[in-house]
Specification:
It is built from 8 helices and 10 strands. By secondary structure, it is of the alpha/beta class.
Length: 204
């Protein structure tokens, strides 16, 4: 028997996690000098309040969770004799996965009979969420963790996502667009359409 895990960087809500059978790890962020743990500090995300803060010019920062925090999520299930399949956001995007590796190594020493499986979605946000849906369907169909891992080896790289930005403010803040270009682009109403291709590791 195994259970599903994911994290809040995959854009899953509390209600969505219940429907899809996921346990959720809260990835913290700091905004307006306040540390926030999604799904722990609140169950319903107030999108308007959050984006109003961004529009005011403040940007969030993120931080890694500790080895002990990971263990607090996983160990109760290992104690119950259950394996874990963790479907997570891109490991290339955060140092938090170093702590994950340490936590799993420690838990494997304590529970050598237990298995820990991982699927790296190689993305974040809505792109990762689409993969969560697929994995959940297979889980509900009774597929084994090994079967889902096998599926992920070929299918994850086929996912892609398009989205657009309604202005160039944050492109300027990140240094991707210079000040003059951002100002002129906003004046004439440029709305960049961005394409994320996992297989080619490209943003266009």
């Amino acid at each position: 028997m195994y259970v599903l895990f994911t994290d809040t960087d995959c854009d899953i809500t509390v209600e969505g996690a219940r429907k899809l059978n996921y346990n959720v790890i809260s990835m913290p962020y700091t905004i307006d000098d306040k540390d926030v743990y999604p799904n722990e500090d609140y169950e319903v995300f107030d999108g308007k309040a959050y984006y109003d803060i961004l529009r005011s010019g403040k940007l969030p920062s993120t931080s890694a969770i500790s080895e002990a925090k990971y263990m607090s999520y996983f160990e109760p299930f290992f104690q119950e004799g259950k394996d874990i399949l963790y479907v997570h956001f891109s490991s290339a995007m955060s140092m938090t996965f170093q702590n994950l590796e340490k936590a799993i190594a420690a838990l494997k020493e304590k529970y050598p009979e237990r298995n820990f499986y991982r699927i790296d979605t190689k993305g974040i946000s809505i792109l990762s969420l689409n993969i969560l849906y697929e994995v959940s369907d297979m889980y509900k169909e009774g597929k084994s963790a090994e079967e889902i891992i096998k599926w992920a080896e070929t299918e994850v790289d086929k996912f892609a996502v398009y989205f657009f930005a309604d202005d160039l403010k944050f492109f300027k803040k990140s240094g991707r667009v210079n000040g003059i270009t951002a100002t002129m682009g906003n004046l004439i109403g440029i709305r960049p359409i961005i394409y994320v291709d996992i297989c080619q590791r490209t943003w266009r």
